[in-house]
């Protein structure tokens, strides 16, 4: 399972970097969105996979059984998803505004402020 | 309620109040400034509490560390919050005259305070994932401040700024995930303990991920290109607060993780920092030399000055770290001030282009004086604050015993040469803007700015220049704090005991 996830994460990272290097601004934004998915999956995998062990404390118990999954990476991912969702919404609005203000969606044409 | 929570609540409450009174410009402006005054008061109290060397720890929900999230205030964090509040207040006052009504109506002050909320949070937190969240709070508010107004150059700059910062955030997050997977903890003090049991090569790899993430935020070589492409586009007040605070949050984060967690292989990690510091100083200052836009020139100088701070961190001796802390304090004040001055010359003379400005020495001698102080301080002329900051770091490289052998004195020599080039850039601005006679049709006039606004623009600049002079004339008082802070940073067991103490 780890192997499969590692491959998936690699593909996601590769795809997102490919998109980030494209010239269209919208593709770049999609690249950022994909990147955050890749990172979420990375946290999930790095946190350790455990099959069929729900992190509930048994009735009458005080601590989590040793065999149960670690709930913390999932909490981290949940936080990260919420943040990346908000940021993505902002980025899309920004790209729309940038398109209105500059009249182009080509990154190569956004060089007006670059240091020469 | 203690000062630590207040330092976070004040900007949050102010931001919410500003949002509630979005329609009333006077009320928003009042809250915008009053909130910063309160924050400044709170940060002085914070400083008084931890100034003696005591580390204050606040546990959320009273969960013992490392299980709950903690806020940790050591001397470095308190200093950073204090100087942030100073800059925040200066910029809030300056904004009264600089930021137009339309931007205020769209929530300028609210987002300024949300950003302060994120900045203070990033300084105060003792949990690495929590730091990521604070970074995001700070970033998203800064994105809004960058875009607010929606002018063409602003949007061009914003696209680069936003995308590159998001990439850096994802590196940060990935690094947190890997660190957690290996150690099972996110509490920084606990990480410092458990990371020693990690496989060293994996720990170093994680350190590199953090270096990329924080390096991008701090704008170190070769990750700085977004900075000079975007910092000169928003209103001056926004540029100034970005220039003063945001990259320095990155430097602070680098200092935190590379003194507390990643100290297992100093030759590799800090050696890399040392090399990057050299390149950052040189490329930044060379980039600045060819610029003729006031703010773009200053933006390149931010990059160059970041190099000095990273150099101090890389040398990793008590004097060097103390120098870095002192440098941070001095640099935030001076750099924000120079940006504010660039705004005044733009208002008087109508341009940011050095070629179209001139004759300010005759037309506005007070502005000339107020530029001269921070500019010479940046160039490292005694007795101003920049001299002592540079002196400490250069001396550490020349005198202290480091593991880098001959590289340390070599980098000190580079730092001295870069200092000279910095001075050259500052004298270029001086010659172009202040001494050169005004170009045809571009004569600067005080009357271009109404009298009331003029004082609002000049007062914060004068206050910051006064602070620079004070630091320069009484360096011992300020350097003592830096030395004590360096002591805490180089003895992580103090930090670890303070956080994990009573619970283990």
Would you give an account of this structure?
The complex is a heterodimer of chains A (116) and B (504). With 116 residues, chain A is an all-alpha fold. Chain A has a domain at 1-6 and 16-49 and 69-105. Chain A has helices at residues 2-20, 25-46, 71-102. The longest helix of chain A is centred in the last third of the chain and has 32 residues, at 71-102. Chain A is elongated, with a radius of gyration of 20 Å. The relative contact order of chain A is 0.14. Chain B is mostly helical and 504 residues long. Chain B has one domain (3-499). In chain B, 77% of the residues lie in helices and 2% in strands. In chain B, α1 (3-20) runs antiparallel to α2 and α1 (3-20) runs antiparallel to α5 (108-124). The longest helix of chain B is centred in the N-terminal third of the chain and has 32 residues, at 152-183. Chain B is globular. The two termini of chain B are 26 Å apart. Chain A binds chain B through residues 20, 25, 28-29, 32, 35-36, 38-39, 42-43, 45-48, 70, 72-73, 76, 79-80, 83, 86-87, 90-91, 94-95, 97-98, 100-102, 107, 110-115, and chain B through 129, 133, 136, 139-140, 143-144, 147, 150-160, 162-163, 166-167, 170, 173-174, 176-178, 180-182, 184, 186, 225, 228-230, 232-233, 287, 291, 296, 299-300.
């Amino acid at each position: 399972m780890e192997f499969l996830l590692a491959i998936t994460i690699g593909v996601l990272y590769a795809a997102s970097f490919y998109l980030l290097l494209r010239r269209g601004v919208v593709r770049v934004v999609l690249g950022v969105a994909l990147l955050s998915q890749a990172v979420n999956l990375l946290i999930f995998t790095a946190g350790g996979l455990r099959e069929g062990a729900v992190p509930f404390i048994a009735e009458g118990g005080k601590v989590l059984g040793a065999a149960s999954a670690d709930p913390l990476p999932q909490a981290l991912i949940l936080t990260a998803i919420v943040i990346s969702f908000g940021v993505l919404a902002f980025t899309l609005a920004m790209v729309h505004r940038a398109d209105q203000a500059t009249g182009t969606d080509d990154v190569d044409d956004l060089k007006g402020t670059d240091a020469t | 309620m203690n000062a630590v929570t207040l330092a976070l609540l004040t900007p949050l409450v102010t931001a919410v109040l500003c949002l509630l009174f979005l329609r009333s410009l006077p009320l928003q402006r009042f809250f915008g400034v009053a909130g910063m005054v309160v924050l400044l008061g709170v940060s002085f109290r914070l400083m008084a509490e931890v100034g003696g060397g005591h580390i204050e720890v606040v546990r959320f929900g009273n969960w013992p560390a490392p299980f709950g999230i903690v806020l940790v205030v050591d001397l470095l964090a308190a200093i950073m919050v204090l100087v942030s509040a100073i800059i925040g207040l200066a910029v809030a006052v300056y904004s009264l005259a600089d930021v137009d009504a339309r931007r205020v109506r769209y929530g300028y002050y609210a987002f300024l305070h949300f950003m302060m909320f994120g900045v203070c949070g990033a300084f105060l937190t003792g949990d690495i994932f929590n730091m990521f969240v604070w970074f995001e709070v700070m970033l998203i508010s800064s994105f809004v401040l960058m875009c607010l107004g929606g002018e063409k150059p602003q949007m061009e700059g914003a696209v680069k700024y936003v995308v590159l910062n998001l990439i850096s955030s994802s590196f940060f997050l990935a690094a947190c995930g890997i660190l957690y997977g290996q150690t099972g903890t996110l509490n920084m003090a606990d990480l410092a303990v458990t990371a020693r049991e990690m496989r060293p090569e994996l720990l170093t790899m994680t350190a590199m991920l953090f270096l990329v993430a924080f390096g991008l935020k701090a704008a170190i070589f070769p990750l700085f290109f977004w900075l000079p492409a975007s910092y000169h586009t928003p209103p001056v007040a926004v540029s100034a607060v970005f220039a003063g605070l945001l990259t320095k949050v990155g430097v602070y984060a680098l200092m935190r993780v590379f003194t507390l967690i990643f100290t297992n292989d100093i030759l590799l990690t800090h050696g890399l920092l040392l090399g990057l510091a050299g390149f950052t100083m040189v490329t930044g200052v060379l980039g600045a030399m060819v610029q003729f836009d006031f703010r773009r020139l200053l933006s390149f100088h931010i990059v160059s000055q970041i190099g000095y701070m990273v150099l101090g961190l890389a040398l990793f001796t008590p004097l060097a770290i103390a120098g870095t802390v002192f440098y941070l304090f001095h640099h935030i004040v001076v750099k924000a001030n120079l940006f504010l001055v660039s705004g005044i010359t733009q208002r008087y003379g109508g341009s940011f282009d050095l070629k179209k400005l001139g004759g300010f020495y005759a037309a506005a001698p007070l502005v000339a004086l107020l530029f001269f102080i921070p500019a010479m301080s940046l160039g490292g002329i005694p007795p101003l604050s920049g001299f002592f900051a540079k002196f400490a770091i250069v001396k550490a490289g020349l005198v202290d015993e480091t593991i880098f052998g001959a590289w340390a004195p070599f980098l000190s020599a580079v730092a001295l040469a870069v200092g000279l080039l910095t001075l050259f850039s500052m004298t270029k601005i001086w010659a172009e803007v202040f001494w050169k006679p005004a170009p045809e049709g571009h004569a600067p006039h005080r009357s271009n700015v109404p009298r009331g606004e003029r004082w609002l623009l000049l007062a914060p600049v004068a206050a910051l220049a006064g602070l620079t002079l004070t630091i320069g004339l009484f360096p011992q008082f300020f350097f003592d704090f830096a030395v004590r802070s360096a002591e805490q940073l180089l003895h992580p067991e103090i930090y670890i005991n303070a956080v994990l103490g009573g619970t283990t």
